[in-house]
Fold this protein.
Amino acid sequence: MSLTMLEAMPTEQLINELQSFGARLEDASAGVASRQGGAGPSDHKAMTIDGMTVMVPVHTAPAFKSPYLVGLPDAQGRSRIRRNGEIVAEISFPNTPKFYALSTEDGIPFSKIAVLHGKDVLATTVLQSCVRYTSREKTCQFCAIGQSLAAGRTIERKTPAQLAAVAKAAVELDGVKHMVMTTGTPPGKDRGAAILTESVAAVKAAVDLPIQVQCEPPDDDAWFARLRDAGADALGMHLEAVTPEVRARIMPGKAQVSVERYFSAFAAAVPVFGKGQVSTYILAGLGDTPNAILETSAKLIAIGVYPFVVPFVPISGTPLANHPTPTPDFMHGILQPLAKMLLRSGLNATDIKAGCGKCGACSALSAYERVQKNDL
Ligand code: SF4
């Protein structure tokens, strides 16, 4: 492949397009098996482009009509991506992790306890059920947390001992660098902070691995210090959408926790975890305008919270399965100014100790941050 082909399409633009349009695969078995259903990125495959690993939708409705086709891997595991027949980049797929071959003593495959995200992130959903997933009126419309459980690809409750065993193996066998622990929201007022606390403590006792925990704002801000004292390095509390009307429409249950409560929780958590170690996931393309996302991001950045803005990708089987993805231009209009804001404020994906912002595979944001830094 000649350099001019890569120069013709900047990496951040290519990532934006791949995440909007998805990609077709000549060899569906290449790379790490893609996951269908579950929390976090689903219906995606991890691919490494220009040194950055990104999650590219491959099982979604738009992906079947994508102009992008990923070719068969060569003997070195490299594939070429064609756009409407023209080669635009070379990619590689992260290898299937070795820990996937292991099982617990009672026969549960480690891959049902935690999975590899991106190229070096261990990700788990400690509780694979959610108080908000019980009825259509309450469920977050984008969420597939129950699908992988129903299909038998995961177990509902991962015990601290199971998580510790898998994390140790993933570090020792596959060189995993950080861990994301998310959870469905249980009925209690702590909103999952209690099970995250015991899970983090168990993993940290077994292996030295930076961990990000993710939950809704708990009833009591004292949970932040408990999570940190258990060993959590970073915290994610995910707004998902920023405009109250969009939140009420897309996630009628979770929207009962107001944006104001998220901001008071952020203000309490930043002094505990440090500037830039608290983050929030914002799904662009669900109805928030670019201005609304940028205005909220500016407020978040001002209090030391990293806004991880990702393009919404519909997941098969959810109420939003046929909702369109945002266009690459829409994402560009948000991510370019956002990367500038982050650079000016001194918040960087690379400084985050663990979690989604550090991994960055669900968005082109870190590619934009890299461009801004190189332009300095
Ligand atoms: S950004 Fe978060 S959800 Fe996306 S692949 Fe990375 S760890 Fe997983």
